[in-house]
Write a structure and sequence with these properties.
Layout lengths: L5 E7 L4 E4 L5 E9 L10 E8 H10 L5 E14 L6 E14 L3 H9 L10
Parallel strand pairs: 4-6
Antiparallel strand pairs: 1-3, 1-5, 2-3, 3-4, 5-6
Length: 123
């Protein structure tokens, strides 16, 4: 048996980077800052997130820098060849299956005033 499940709660590090493809697919990239449960750690851990389809559209509409979100997904590795050195490179990315908007109503209202919104459907 194998298992590849990641669940995180944290704050978004920047506005969504969304791309629409000719095929009709939608892809969104986000960064997520997650604080560790430790007394001596002032720096968060940063994670790269990738969302597709409806999840990507929801993120584009309602997620902004600083939004509190919860995600469930799986770990994958993007791989490529470095153009300058020819070396193989890889980067961990969390492929998000489920996105939960966790901010308070006041947070959602602030986001709405700055161009965001509060998506409340169960998606």
């Amino acid at each position: 048996m194998s298992l590849n499940v990641i669940t995180l709660v944290g704050r978004v590090g920047g506005d969504p980077d969304v791309k629409y493809f000719e095929s009709g697919s939608v892809k969104c990239r986000l960064t997520l800052a997650v604080n560790r449960n430790s007394r001596n750690n002032d720096q968060p851990d940063w994670f790269n997130l990738e969302l597709w389809g409806r999840q990507a559209e929801v993120a584009e509409q309602y997620v902004r820098k600083g939004s509190l979100v919860g995600i469930k997904g799986s770990l994958k590795f993007d791989t490529w060849v470095d153009r300058n050195t020819g070396a193989n490179r890889s980067s961990p990315v969390i492929l998000v299956d489920r996105l939960e908007l966790l901010g308070s109503r006041r947070d959602n209202e602030s986001s709405m005033n700055s161009g965001g919104g509060g998506y409340e459907d169960d998606f």
